[in-house]
Write a structure and sequence with these properties.
The complex is a heterotrimer of chains A (354), B (373) and C (194). With 373 residues, chain B is α+β, with helices and mostly antiparallel strands. Chain B has helices at 55-59, 64-71, 79-94, 100-129, 134-153, 175-198, 201-207, 215-220, 225-229, 237-240, 261-283, 337-343, 345-349, 354-364, 368-372, and strands spanning 15-19, 31-37, 40-47, 162-163, 166-167, 304-312, 315-323, 331-335. In chain B, the strands form 3 sheets. Chain B has a 3-stranded antiparallel beta sheet. Chain B has a 3-stranded antiparallel beta sheet with strand order 6-7-8. The two termini of chain B are 24 Å apart. In chain C, the strands form 2 sheets. Chain C has a 5-stranded mixed beta sheet. A two-stranded parallel ribbon of chain C has the order 6-7. Residues 1-9 and 29-50 of chain C have low confidence and may be disordered. The chains are: A mainly alpha (354), B alpha+beta (373), C alpha/beta (194).
């Protein structure tokens, strides 16, 4: 705690001493952005490798184990390969939109990453409408998908993009409502406040039954948001080629690909923050070593990421109309009823406090 | 570039999609021309011939022993049964007296082939529907069967173990032991398959009520094998026209009446159990004797027409030979099960969605080289 | 062939039943007609004229085959097939093999029919001498499986079928010239002759 405070404070003071104020704050922001880009890249690489290893474990095989120690450098090699690929473009594609589409998904993922609290005071942007900001920003990603599908001038890509757009818009409702259920306990949208409230016990414990229901709905809806199986009709490889990113290759494809994994990480990170106490250790055992918060945060997030990967490699796919039926006829009503139950519990002080 | 005309009244809201020859869901090189309206399919037209090798014309030029080698490449997943079909035709025409040992071994290896084909089918079925892990589980079990075949027949896929007159060589001493081990192992695996896929709610919702085929349509379209049996049409050639050692074993015919994709799936799972039971009945009592009878080096069938039906993994395979007494057949026609099963794809997919089409095609279990010959 | 002698009685009954559907108009004119010969047609009227005249327009034989073969002229072909399917005693609802054959001078098609209720099998053969423009009737509306099979026969032999909903080539490309499975087909590039 003291260490990190002093590093950021030191850099902050140093910058302000050598440059005029505006330039110093701009430099500061650029530095922070670069740090986050670094986190983004490393997290993306690591998650892709994790997915491949987990898939191999489920499928009774080894996974990548040649490049680097136990395959740790595999994604690096893949990234280098993608960088060197020819950027094919279709003749009749709308070039401006075609090139713009991947940036929407990347930017929305990065912006959302900025508000996640990795540990005490390690948060790039702690605004008072934290949760609202997160939901709003992740909705921007849909534009990227729709643009990508449309601008590719390819029937399959268009079908994939349409399906994805419909799916994402529908499931955002469930995500928002299940997070709202937990906000009823905390009373604040600010992420650091949410973590403060959880010092009395994680929210999933405090809220007991409605919180558990909200968590389950959130996981289902979160998996659907990121277009992962069992909701991956969008990129159903055995049906329509590669969906909306059929016509992308090289670095642009890498952007879509990485963005999907970062989105998965984000969904898990938000779940950790809101339901499982972010960087707080269970029963407060290591509160005295604040830097260990990063470890706890990452451990909880990675468990949830593993859960999402487990879903992918076990379940068959839902058909697009079954997917939408699930959301509109089942999850949404349950969510609404859940909010009422949670409101009642909070009003009557029936939450479990430690 | 060849153009294929779409014979339909093309309305302006419909559009036209090509599930082209290279596609992960069509099992082999099959081109489907779909006319769809949003997600609903209006018409499915298969375009065949990408792997047509004119096997029937080649058979008019080859001797009967060479023809057996061509049959492996038709439905390569039940290659042993294809070989058996031609060998039985020749042997019945020549009225040879095949030793009991040969018949029993042919039946055992035929049933093992059927199980191997169904394992692969199950793996690919899961993969098409989205459960990607099933592919590996199906292949893991198929590898055990392939290893048994490799030891006895010398090959894993195109076995050529049958010759007119018997078998090419005697079975390996390890064959009985390994087969028994496999049967014991596989009996624990089919329940695993059921836990993973059959009982899964998502899977059931994808397959129930999808692609319904009534019994009259099944008979009219000539559907045979599991596709016909799932509609309640009792068409098992092993029961109605038994061959080799099949009249000595008792087994149930897997019949279901709903005719939807889930029924076709369950029929194949039941067939795997039945095949295991047939192998168990025969494996301990393989009679001693010769493994072949001598035939002439140049086989000439007497003048006439001969037809032999066998139950391949996909359905009823028929071999129709017209011979004029020379060493090559005058005309040899293969009645392939996949050909008739494919013709009903349009009938059962119209009105459904693209996702349903993929699920239906996976349950029809088409192997395109079998259709194109 | 082994094992099929048992069905001979049934074949005989089938032969009588089916033969009666298409009586030979010439039979009524000749008062004394006999059809003798080895396994050929049995007849209703027993007479002792040495000249064999077929009482039916169809020809029946079991020689050289495991099943009862019926050879029919193209004119009665469609009516025969419809009757074979619809008549409850024969009820041949399963067409399991449709093959085109080049008989040297004539082109023909062979239909193997089975009944799923009675389990008897019969083979129907129809020929046409016209090699330039061979035409036969389609049975698509009787058995739906015939649609693809007849396309295949058209593709390889050139036999056209009347009333077929969609008669075009199936395996070969639309621009292919010639009909490969005919005996007089010559192709220097694709055929390897030993």
């Amino acid at each position: 705690m003291n260490i990190s405070l002093s590093i950021t404070k030191t850099i902050h003071d140093w910058l302000y001493s050598i440059m005029p104020e505006t330039a110093a704050s701009i430099t500061e922001m650029v530095l922070i952005a670069l740090v986050y880009l670094g986190i983004f890249a490393v997290a993306g690489l690591f998650l892709v490798l994790l997915e491949r290893k987990v898939a191999a474990w489920f499928q009774l095989r080894l996974g990548p184990n040649r490049v680097g120690f136990h395959g740790l450098l595999q994604t690096m090699a893949d990234a280098l390969k993608l960088l060197s690929k020819e950027l094919t473009g279709t003749v009749k594609a709308d070039m401006f939109l075609y090139n713009l589409a991947p940036y929407f998904v990347i930017i929305s993922a990065l912006m959302a990453l900025a508000v996640i609290p990795f540990t005490q005071d390690f948060q790039a942007f702690d605004i008072n409408i934290g949760i609202f900001f997160l939901i709003a920003v992740s909705s921007i990603g849909v534009i990227g998908i729709l643009l990508g599908g449309w601008a590719s001038n390819n029937k399959f890509a268009l079908i994939g993009a349409m399906r994805s757009g419909v799916q994402t818009i529908s499931y955002e409702l469930s995500i928002g409502l299940s997070l709202l259920t937990m906000i009823l306990i905390t009373g604040s949208l600010q992420l650091s406040e949410i973590v403060e409230v959880q010092k009395d016990g994680w929210l999933i414990v405090q809220g007991h039954i409605p919180a558990i229901i909200a968590f389950m709905i959130y996981m289902i809806a979160g998996t659907a948001e990121t277009n992962r199986a069992p909701f991956d009709m969008v990129e159903a490889e055995s049906e329509l080629g590669a969906g909306f990113h059929t016509e992308y290759s090289g670095m642009k494809f890498a952007y879509f690909f990485l963005a999907e994994f970062i989105n998965m990480f984000l969904i898990a990170a938000i779940a950790t923050t809101v339901f499982f106490g972010a960087w707080l250790s269970p029963f407060g055992i290591t509160e005295s070593i604040p830097l260990l918060g990063v470890f706890w945060f990452l451990a909880k997030t990675l468990i949830l990421v593993f859960l999402m990967m487990w879903f992918r490699w076990t379940f068959p796919r839902l058909r697009i109309d079954q997917l939408l039926t699930l959301e509109w006829k089942y999850l949404l009503p349950i969510n609404l009823v859940n909010i009422v139950i949670m409101a009642f519990i909070v009003w009557q002080n029936l939450t479990i406090q430690f | 570039m060849e153009t294929t005309t779409v014979n339909s009244n093309f309305k302006s809201e419909e559009y036209f999609i090509n599930m082209g020859p290279q596609h992960p869901a069509t099992h082999g090189v099959l081109r489907l021309l779909l006319t769809i309206d949003g997600e609903i399919i209006k018409k499915v037209q298969p375009d065949l011939g990408y792997i047509h090798r004119s096997i029937e014309k080649m058979c008019e030029r080859d001797s009967y022993q060479q023809i057996v080698h061509l049959t492996d490449r038709m439905d390569y997943l039940s290659s042993h049964i294809n070989n058996e079909a031609v060998c039985l035709t020749v042997e019945n025409a020549l009225e040879l007296d095949i030793p009991e040992r040969v018949k029993v071994i042919r039946t055992i290896i035929g049933e093992l082939t059927r199980i191997a084909s169904h394992c692969l089918w199950w793996g690919v079925m899961g993969m098409d529907v989205g459960a990607l892990t099933t592919y590996f589980y199906g292949f893991r079990d198929r590898e055990m069967i392939n290893d048994i075949f490799e030891e006895t027949c010398g090959a894993r896929l195109t076995m050529n173990y049958n010759i007119p007159g018997g078998l090419m060589f005697d079975i390996h001493p390890n064959f009985v032991k390994r087969t028994k081990e496999f049967v014991a192992h596989f009996k624990t695996k089919i329940p695993e398959y059921d836990r993973l896929l059959t009982g899964n709610v998502i899977f059931q919702k994808r397959m129930k009520g999808v692609g319904i085929l009534t019994k009259e349509d099944a008979i009219s379209f000539g559907a045979s094998g599991p596709v016909g049996r799932a509609s309640g049409y009792s068409c098992d050639v092993r029961k109605h026209h038994p061959y080799s050692a099949l009249d000595k074993v008792t087994f149930n015919e897997a019949l279901k009446t709903e005719g939807d994709s889930l029924a076709r799936y369950e029929v194949r799972i039941m067939e795997m159990w039945e095949s295991l039971s047939i192998i168990e009945q025969l494996i301990d009592n393989i009679p001693e004797g010769d493994y072949k009878v001598a035939t002439n080096a140049v086989i000439k069938l007497p003048k006439g027409e001969y037809y032999q039906k066998v139950e391949a993994a996909r359905g009823e395979l028929g071999v129709y030979v017209i011979s004029t007494g020379t060493k090559n057949p005058y005309r040899l026609k293969f009645r392939s099960p996949g050909f008739s099963n494919l013709s009903l794809l349009n009938h059962i997919s119209v009105g459904g969605k693209i996702g349903d089409l993929v699920a239906t095609m996976a349950t029809l279990d088409l192997v395109i080289p079998d259709i194109d010959r | 062939m082994k094992g099929y002698k048992i069905e001979c009685m049934i074949n005989q009954a089938l032969q009588d039943l089916i033969g009666n559907w298409f009586p030979n108009p010439e039979v009524k004119n000749i008062s004394e007609v006999v059809a003798v010969s080895e396994t050929e047609d049995a007849t209703e009227e027993n007479v002792e004229n040495p000249e064999p005249v077929n009482p039916s327009l169809l020809e029946f034989t079991e020689e050289g085959s495991q099943f009862l073969n019926i050879t029919v002229q193209p004119e009665q072909f469609y009516a025969l097939m419809t009757q074979l399917k619809n008549n409850t005693e024969t009820h041949f609802d399963y067409l399991f093999c449709l093959s085109g054959i080049d008989w040297g001078e004539a082109l023909g098609v062979v239909y193997h029919l089975e009944s799923t209720t009675h389990r008897h099998i019969v083979v129907v053969k129809v020929k046409t001498e016209d090699r330039e423009n061979p035409t036969l009737d389609s049975v698509c509306d009787i058995w739906k499986t015939a649609e693809f099979h007849e396309r295949e026969v058209y593709d390889f032999f050139g036999i056209k079928f009347n009333n077929h909903p969609d008669l075009r080539r199936l395996f070969l490309t639309d621009e292919w010239e010639g009909f490969p499975l005919r005996k007089d087909y010559v192709d220097d590039i694709n055929m390897v002759i030993k």
